[in-house]
Amino acid sequence: MKPIVIIGAGLAGYSVAREFRKLDREHPLVLIAADDADFYTKPMLSNAFASGKTPAALVGTPAARMAAQLGLVSHARTRVTAIDRGRGVLVTDRGELEYGRLVCALGAEPVSLRLTGSAAEEVRAVNSLSDYAHWRSRLEHARTVAIIGAGLIGCEFANDLALAGYRVSVIDPSPHPLASLLPPAAGCRLQEALAGIGIDWRLGIGVGAVDRHGAGVRLILGDATAVEADLVLSAVGLRPSIGLATAAGLATGRGVQVDARLRSTDPHIFALGDCAEIDGEVRNYVAPIMHAARALARTLAGSDTAVAFPPMPVIVKTPCEPLVVLPAPRAAPGRWLVEAEDGGLKMVFRDAAERMLGFVLTGARVSERNVMTQGLALAA
Asked: Of 54, 133, 153, 322, which one has the greatest count of Cβ atoms within 10 A?
């Protein structure tokens, strides 16, 4: 039998392997990873420093043990350079590998900032365990950190670093934090909570240049003001990794385009996780990955299965202001309403028929997450 080959050793790749092995213990499985192929949970990178977690401590299961548990052949530190669809072969920097069916769990890459200045190359993102190890070593000699980006990752890193005793500035063109997820009232509440632990906000403005300044850097903002810091973190978002799929002639848009069965325009190639655009949507959080992995495993095991996504709230790891959000569908008509403010903020998004399509909970109100999610599922 030709093997099922999975490219990627992140949550998506390993989840497919795990779910498939529950259904089929015999079919050959091969996993290829550009890194060490150790299993770790990437979302933990943004709140690991304050708790003193080393890169080694973040590894849940080493690659060799994962391979033994899942009965697969693991090729670590192996980079796939091309997909030869005609021959059913992957070209790698260590030779060629044949596949019967291919699963692309390629993840996403940090968005590159277009910055000028003598220290532009000092701006780094943290998107892997090796990135975290490098970032952690640099933090040992720093006291001040500037974060470019006030989205989910930027806010989580800001909270974590402030708890660890760093002076943190966050710069973003948006008017409030998490602007793509939260209505203004909730975003401003998070902003106030983070300001309360010392975070300096520079919102409604971008970064133009990053110059060397003594032992650190100086960020020149769009209004000609400056922020000085020892280190700069880029947290402006991720872009699905589609280069390999595009070069192979697969249909790509924002991600590798797949249908509800996670099948690409090549019937032998599938995609899920941060790299996939599923029926026009990129779903890049943990819960969608787990649902997609279970559905794809059944399809690979011979039972064609479409993935169905229930309401899936996003948990934001900002302990100074606990926050859960279930965003309303993009472009959905309706409005955000405040339903409670005591003990935390509770907001719901309702359409013209007063149906709830989304919600935000902060503070102690996050305890209502399950009830709210169930209510939204019943309304659907």
From this structure: 153
